[in-house]
Amino acid sequence: MISWYLATPLVLPFLTAVLAFLLRWGRAGRWISVAGNVALLGAAAILMARVLEDGVIAGQMGQWAAPFGITLAADLLSAVMVVITAITALAVSVYALADVPKRAEHLGYHALFNVLIGGVCGAFLTGDLFNLYVWFEVMLISSFGLLVLGGRPEQIDGGVKYVTLNLISTILFLSGVGLLYGMTGTLNMADLAVTVPQLENQGLVTLIAVMFMIAFGVKAAVFPLFFWLPAAYHTPFFSVSAVFAGLLTKVGVYSLMRMFTLVFTGDTGFTHEILLWVAALTMLTGVLGAAAQNDIRKILSFHIVSQIGYMIMGLALYTPLALAGAVFYLVHHIIVKANLFLVGGVAERIAGSTDLGRIGGLYKTAPLLAVLFLIPAFSLAGFPPLSGFWAKYVLVAAAIEIEGWAIAAVALVVGLLTIYSMTKIWAEAFWKPHPDGTDPTLASLSAHDRRSLIWPIASLAALTLVIGFFPEPFVTFAERAAGQLLDPTAYIEAVLGGPAT
Amino acid sequence: MNSIILLAGTRALSGLLLLFSLYMLLRGHNEPGGGFIGGLIGSTGFVLYAIACGAEDARRALRVPPQNIAMAGLGIALLAGLASVVFGDPLFTGQWLFIGGTKEEGGLPFSSILVFDIGVYLVVFGSVLTLVFAMEEEI
Known about the structure:
Chain A has one domain (2-495). Chain A contains 21 helices and 2 strands. Chain A has 501 residues and is mainly alpha-helical. Chain B has one domain. Chain B is 68% helix and 6% strand. Chain B has a two-stranded antiparallel ribbon. The longest helix of chain B is centred in the last third of the chain and has 27 residues, at 112-138. The radius of gyration of chain B is 18 Å and the shape is elongated.
């Protein structure tokens, strides 16, 4: 029955999507979405408990044995990503109760959203490279639908850029998959981990590794492949932005981490050196891009890019501590980033815009919102004792440990510049008086809207605080996850050895 | 499009295409199950109708919005996969039922795989028509 622990987080979002779509004309659809995500969180928690207890678990879909059928596998990294996906999805589905207009609901917003969540969970759980490609396509199609749902010209513009670049990435991905299959005759990740090191032509393997690096790099929005992200992320509904910002790029990061710890570890001197440069440049360009922006969502979009750099840095350094830092950063970042977009949405609702020049005064009139912004914003910048501080601390410590002074310096400087952007939002949106002289308050929202907008934000902020004040268990967990990544024998055994149950 | 030849041809062809799509669904273009190819062929029947008589008429002939067909298909496919939970097997393990006798006695086989294929058929059928109708109306 082990395979059901793995399959349930996949099946639930799709069932939710089907029901929500068929009932999209009434109020039932949105509540099905919320209920489905509550159930998903439960399933994710059960999966996590199982993985904590048993170590890596794997299941074969349709009972087709390991290297031939589709494998689902979960180690600690996969399990924590599914949990965090479920948390984000639940928060956003509650937020969407007040954020998404009826017209979009009738067009199938909730169905698209849940299909997207299903795709994300699938990507985290699959143990098969071609299956990963399928989940990428599921995500691409549903996210394109969500991007253009409002039908405004700039949405179409952003959506087209998004799809075009992501199609290039999937073509590269697919070519890489084809080449790898031609060389090894298998696409099961655990099986690849066994067969790829035995190949004679390691030069070609490195080439394929770089193809995967580019393909996942586009998804993860790393330098120099990130420009689709700021072009697209500021256009859709805030709930869509939030879930994109939190989850989509992280699937790319996760795939990079999976492939470059499990399969492409033959020539780390070459591949991980590239990754290190990419990480440094991603951090820098992202944060500098953000400094030039003057709109909350655009600033935050560029910060996604810069934060991705930190995670790639953890992968590139490739030590136990660095990988633990990357895992910790992933978890912290998803919560914080999604939350910042949600706060941005409320700011727009009550102050009328996300353009920093046209809003202000929120500190005086909406102090609760100000506090709720402060927590994720300063966590993002890495203020102690918030979660971002520990994430950056672990990564910088890992860099210094192997005397990577340059990358440590870049990480610290980028942290400093992040503070600059966050204080810019703080000063413009919260401190300075509103340019129209109006006093935007939370009370201007209806009680229902206020509840469903503020609760998710407050819960995610609380989670940030919990990680910040009690980092110990999370760091220990991240170290265990990193240990599993660096020593994949347990993963390979779970997938290939033993009878399918 | 206003063409008598196309209209006359469509009348004969769309029915034929739908019938052929059912055959494909049951038999597959290369033996087992042909939900995908069947759905594509079935949808061409209505695509032809939409080209000849306009998307509005085609929608009326279909009666149900194509999006709903696609989503219902997704639901059916999922349920077919979930059927294995009742028998304690992993997700998507094929379940076989023999109506009117065991396999050896020549009972009529009925499998969750067929149900899954019907689901796929409807997903493909519905999504192709959603796209084509939308584009046809745009032009």
